[in-house]
Amino acid sequence: MRLILLGPPGAGKGTQCKRIIERYKAAHLSSGDILRAERKAGSDLGQKAQSFMDSGGLVPDDVIIGMMIGAMTRQAGGYVLDGFPRTTVQGQELDKALASAGEKIDAIVNLQIDDAVIEPRMTGRRSCPVCGAVYHIENLKPKVDGQCDKGCGELVQRPDDKPEVVENRLKIYHEQTAEVVGYYESTGATIININADQDIDKVSADVIEQLDKLDA
Ligand code: ADP
Ligand code: AMP
């Protein structure tokens, strides 16, 4: 299965992707995770992305499009795109690349949620810098406070989850990313709208109920 997961930052895309890829045996292609790995490796791409990410802005389209289409091309089976596309131009370029490869996206899962609910999700998010696992100080606590359950060590707050950056990320989402849903509506793609303001298991159940219908 090939899917795109849309929704504002903090909507729960990464959390739901983990469950979707397990059930449907697909790869998780998160643009944010790939960028953070590039930064950790000190690559040119990572260095180019750094200032945009730290301020909560978007990394330029040409950098992201090449990076994500490259990652998709390396996948023989299904995948779930998380965090990409984030602009209409990215969506259009993705569609062109899929068409020339003779592939198509089966569905777009659109996580819907208000900013007021998202803010505490982002500021309370804690991530493992070693394995990438994601927790929350209230909603998804690790077994031992501040420590990754997989024994990697201390959890950290992403610099772009600090309150002053979160505000900018939400502003950018509304200015540049929210319109991507409209773009896909205009192409006639299959869009599955999900209420993401429910507990994690209920959101997963709603997503799986809809995806199982597609898979049948
Ligand atoms: P995204 O990938 O969309 O930025 P995440 O999946 O990282 O979002 O989730 C953001 C934070 O909110 C994480 O700390 C996660 O544990 C928490 N979270 C995710 N889904 C829910 C939910 N349905 N209810 C409460 N907290 C959630
Ligand atoms: P995320 O982990 O999805 O919240 O992404 C973290 C940051 O990476 C974003 O705030 C952007 O700076 C950058 N980023 C991730 N995906 C994209 C994208 N598709 N287009 C532009 N920038 C992106």
Please explain how this structure is put together.
Helix content is about 50%, strand content about 15%. The model has no long low-confidence stretch (mean pLDDT about 95). It has one domain (about 1-115, about 165-215): P-loop containing nucleotide triphosphate hydrolases (Rossmann fold, 3-Layer(aba) Sandwich). Strands 2-3-1-4-7 form a five-stranded parallel beta sheet, with helices on both faces. It has helices spanning about 15-25, 30-40, 45-55, 60-75, 90-100, 115-125, 165-175, 180-185, 200-215, and strands at about 1-5, 25-30, 80, 105-110, 125, 135, 190-195. The chain is α/β, with parallel strands linked by helices. The structure holds adenosine-5'-diphosphate (ADP) and adenosine monophosphate. Adenosine-5'-diphosphate (ADP) binds near residues 7, 12, 134 and 135.
